């Protein structure tokens, strides 16, 4: 029973924090006001009587119930104001105080909580939701890029290549092409393919100078090395 009641309290606390954009560090105040409200709501287990009525013997006062996290203005005490300053401060309503008669309000300017009876409520204005939206950066409009006037045409192959050599029909002598290799295309395939003619340069070929073939001496030396084996071979044939 205690675990079910704990889950009930946690569900209501989570709902209040998320619905009204209240920061999670105010979970203790949210839990206190949830317990305050559940004790004053009718319960079907008590024949639609509230726990407050069963405990104290009289109906609770519902006139002082306000929305959790709404905007409220707390009247400042005399030592915190003068004739030329604001007479009240904008705060967030966080609940009730059990030890004294008053409302618990959070003052963001002084970073503190105030307990006061002189409070004016604006229940249709969530405090933390307005604070959250005001800190958002301004939205920038992205430039508009119109669609391309000319649609992009996809590439269509002009040639069909086969992975395997198709078998030929012995009766007709024609080549059989497998059906899964046939390509349906609107473009007409070429019947023959003529390879381009290779252009041969007409520039005379000369050996590079770094190997010494351009000088007459080097050329004659090269011819001598080539002619020696030829002469030796002719001499051997003559002797034989």
Structure notes:
- It is built from five helices and five strands, in the order αααβββββαα.
- Strands 4-3-2-1-5 form a five-stranded antiparallel beta sheet.
- The protein has a domain at 2-133.
- With 240 residues, it is an alpha+beta fold.
Strand residue percentage: 5-15%
What number is the mean pLDDT? 74
| Spatial strand order of the main sheet | 4-3-2-1-5
Shape: elongated
Q: What's the total number of strands?
A: 5
Secondary-structure map:
Elements (H helix, E strand, L loop, with lengths): L1 H18 L7 H12 L12 H6 L13 E6 L12 E9 L6 E5 L4 E5 L2 E8 H8 L81 H24 L1
Antiparallel strand pairs: 1-2, 1-5, 2-3, 3-4
Give short descriptive properties of this protein.
single chain, 240 residues, 28% helix, alpha+beta, 5 helices, five-stranded antiparallel beta sheet
Summarize the structure.
This protein has 240 residues and is α+β, with helices and mostly antiparallel strands.
């Amino acid at each position: 029973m205690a675990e079910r009641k704990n889950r009930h309290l946690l569900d209501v606390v989570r709902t209040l924090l998320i619905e009204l954009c209240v920061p999670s560090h105010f979970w203790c105040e949210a839990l206190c006001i949830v317990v305050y409200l559940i004790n004053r709501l009718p319960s079907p287990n008590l024949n639609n009587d509230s726990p407050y009525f069963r405990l104290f013997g009289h109906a609770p006062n519902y006139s002082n119930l306000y929305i959790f996290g709404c905007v409220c203005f707390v009247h400042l005490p005399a030592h915190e104001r003068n004739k030329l300053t604001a007479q009240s401060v904008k705060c967030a309503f966080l609940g009730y105080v059990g030890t004294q008669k008053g409302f618990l309000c959070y003052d963001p300017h002084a970073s503190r909580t105030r307990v006061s009876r002189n409070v004016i409520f604006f229940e249709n204005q969530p405090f933390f939701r307005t604070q959250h939206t005001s800190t958002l950066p301004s939205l920038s409009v992205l430039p508009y890029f119109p669609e391309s006037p000319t649609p992009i045409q996809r590439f269509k192959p002009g040639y069909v290549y086969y992975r395997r050599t198709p078998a030929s029909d012995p009766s007709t002598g024609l080549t059989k092409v497998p059906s899964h290799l046939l390509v349906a295309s609107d473009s007409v395939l070429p019947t023959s393919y003529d390879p381009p003619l290779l252009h041969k340069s007409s520039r005379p070929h000369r050996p590079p100078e770094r190997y010494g073939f351009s000088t007459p001496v080097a050329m004659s030396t090269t011819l001598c090395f080539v002619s020696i084996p030829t002469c030796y071979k002719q001499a051997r044939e003559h002797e034989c």
